[in-house]
Predict the structure of Phosphate transport system permease protein PstA.
Amino acid sequence: MNAKKADKFATGVLYAISGVIVLILAALLLYILIRGIPHISWNFLTKPSKAYQAGGGIGIQLFNSLYLLLITMLISFPISLGAGIYLSEYAKKNWVTDVIRTSIEILSSLPSVVVGLFGFLIFVVQLGYGFSIISGALALTFFNLPLLTRNVEESLKAVHYTQREAGLSLGLSRWETVMKVVVPEALPGILTGVILSSGRIFGEAAALIYTAGQSAPALDFSNWNPLSVSSPISIFRQAETLAVHIWKINTEGTMPDGAAVSAGASAVLILVVLLFNFGARFIGNRLYKRMTSA
């Protein structure tokens, strides 16, 4: 077999493998969506769940998932941004930097259930936060930090060195150059990483079972006192998320229409995660085109 034929054969094999992977993924997504979309309605998305009766919804769980995502990003993004800037712009190549990078790699490889157990021991038990949104958000921060930090670092490194030289030549300090020149230039990549990590957080279940809890108490949307456990903005209340709710339905079997609720909730979860992924690509491309055309 000559080189051209070998190249065509290898290329065909790679295309075939890629096609099989895409077909498997598409079949999985279509199966979940086809089973779940017929059960989705406005009442399903807004009504609270019911344990021993049919006709429950996912309103509280959906709100909990979005609120927990917001709190987690408010905690993890500033830390990740600072760590990414340090590793990209200030860190010297020595054993300290190697330890930091190794720690990030180890943390990113930990199973989410281990992060959940760590959060249970530290935040729920030792710090006394109990099963709450803040416990879940802090646990997910450890889960999210490696991905976001690497994303910020790689986005900053992708900015050409001439941008930094231009800022310094204009009399800007190193910090001003980073904040006013480098970070804005890397913003499309950073924003894409933030949205993708948001989708990952939204679909997380194992780490939240041990930290945010497995119950969804009724919320009083007329009560905005953050110290009240019935307030929707309280970070010290239990908050069963959508992913945990799906797990709970399929393990406890206390709902007469559990299969329908599980299918509908799974479809909503998939649609939201897909929205995060496609939204990240769309926003990243729009920002990149706008910045390159400016």
Remarks:
- The chain has eleven helices and no strands.
- The mean pLDDT is 86.
- Residues 258-293 form the longest helix (36 residues).
